[in-house]
Design goal:
Length: 448
Amino acid sequence: MALRTRTADAAADAAGALRSPPRGFVEYGCPGALIDCTVPSVALQCAVCGHRAAVTGSAAARRPDHPTSLNTPASYPATDHGCASSACWVVAPGHAELRTETLPPLAHGQVQVRTLHSAISRGTEGLVLRGEVPASEYERMRAPFQAGDFPGPVKYGYINVGRVEQGPAALLGRTVFCLYPHQTVYQVPADAVVPVPSGVPAGRAVLAALLETAINALWDAAPCIGDRVAVVGGGTLGLLVAWLAARVPGCTVQVVDTVPARAELATALGAGFALPAAATPDADLVVHTSGTAAGLATALQLAGFEATVLELSWYGSRAVDVPLGQAFHSRRLVLKSSQVGSVAGAQRPRWSHRRRLTLALSLLSDPVLDGLITHSSPFAELPQVLAGLACPLSVRRAARTAPCATASTTHRHPRPSHAPEVAPPNPPLNPSLKAPRRCTPSTSETTS
């Protein structure tokens, strides 16, 4: 899942372009893995509209039941030595906390960014939270700006949208994307940030993480004109894959999921929808994003003769039963992994990670993608939000979660240190989960 962090300044940017959650709050990606954390501005008090937000298919993160005023200047004061910042650290399995840091004077060639939104990758960060990172993956799981070492304490994360408040003139005031953890203000080399296009609202820009993963997946899968494509797992990542595949001329795309409520959004994104039992067989390409053994079995069942099943889920240290008997060999199926840490082979000679991320940001101009964003929750409650992700899978499946209740728990592959996976995974395929709800509007929100 992905948690998006949003500052008070973000609300003004989003108004009129994207339904704006209350200033200083976190917003979640509805049917997938996206949580948006709004970070308070140092210069403003933030009025909060009360409603309950939930984690992607996990225990709910709570918001005040009534409007509240946050004195943000007191929360993040400036000091004689630099700016004070609040950062989220995972200090033990299932436990995170906010720590105050004082930033040094800005060094030459760096930028200082005030976070507008950050996002939690539910799959990868869920593994970090639960202490389930395999020892063999400690180095490959490192995020570019991670502090601390696995198993912890660690400051972890890599989906951050903010505004440059100090640095080179060409970047001052620009909204940028950065592979940085959950922190209200931070400093990085200027070339570590990628400007967000003017036509993309800051709140929507956190989807770049997931969209970059979806782009790389389709590069790996290489669907052909007219292909029948099945996407098993209708979380945020799966829906973005479906959205991209549906734009290939002649392709027929079907999202397969156990949650009927996801059909409406799948349709809006240009794809069909079916429950597993009613899914169309003999697909030319099947993309699996559910992060469950049952979903993978369904993906193999739907693949046609000599078709490819592309696996985007990452299971960490968890063993997964894969049905490679039955007709797997007689149908000559190809089971292939896709990992966003490396640019797909065919594009690798010409495409850098930065070029790929820039492409993902440019594609986010389509307002239809706003349907992937729903609820909000305060940055101050981020430790509680993260604690919900540490719940056992059985507990998360039983939880009725508002925003991401429609997502499926996808544990995708972690990225290596140069380019961590920025795609927030999805919640478990569970028929009992209800459709996501929109945020309750407040004085600092716009309705959608």
